[in-house]
Amino acid sequence: MPGDAELLAMLRKAPVLAGPLPDFDPQSAPAAPGPLLAAWFADALAGGVPEPQVMTLSTAGADGEPSARVLILRGLDTADCAADFASDVRARKGRDLTANPRAALTWYWPAQGRQIRLSGPVTVRDEQATRQDFLGRSEAARIGAFTGTVSEPLSGPAEWERAHEAARELLAADPGRVPDTHTVYRLRAQEAEFFQGDPRRFHVRVRYARNDPGWTRSLLWP
Question: For 102, phi and psi rounded to 5 degrees?
């Protein structure tokens, strides 16, 4: 097992922005972020980026303590530059958003050297959106949502097995059941940033700030 200094030296030697990376001319960036958001997702899919829908959600509770976790994009409204994600309202992210309904989303695609950051207020989607999201999930995911109490302490695998079996039987008897605590959230970006890495470190950063009904676009120093 390497020591801290040796591990850090090894990490420093690991390739970063090795390329080849796509070009991004900031002068070609559209006036609003939505079309660029759609284009970058399409590029990621066409380029074979693994799991481009996976993103980091950052929240903070009433005490200001930050928290971040990785989850999956559940919906996208590029026209309004808004993105959906889901959580159990009892989970830490759910509790944070109840106390402080603002968040940030970050996508990072190393193969393309690209990052997208959205930040802004978060609202709760309606019951229909929540139900559609949950019932569209895999059977394993739906059983998992009824297994135990999210974010609470777990004594070990045996406790999980018992709860999982009970959840499986529950859904077998009622396949259309949706947890009362399952919630779909929508982040409507007030700020959006598109970052294109460059091996020379002349990274291109285009920032959009919402100024209803339009947007203000600016270029940032790397």
Answer: -140, 150
Rounded distance, CA 192 to CA 106, Å? 10
Q: Report the candidate in 139, 144, 213 with the shortest Cα–Cα distance to residue 176.
A: 139
- How many Cβ atoms are within 10 Å of 20's Cβ, its own excluded? 9
Rounded distance, CA 15 to CA 153, Å?
A: 38
Q: Which fold has domain 21-136+180-220?
A: Pnp Oxidase; Chain A (2.30.110)
Please give the pLDDT value at position 111: 94
Question: What DSSP element (H or E) covers 67?
Answer: strand 66-72
pLDDT (0 to 100) of residue 150: 82
Show me where the domains of the chain are located: 21-136+180-220
- Report the amino acid identity of residue 111: A
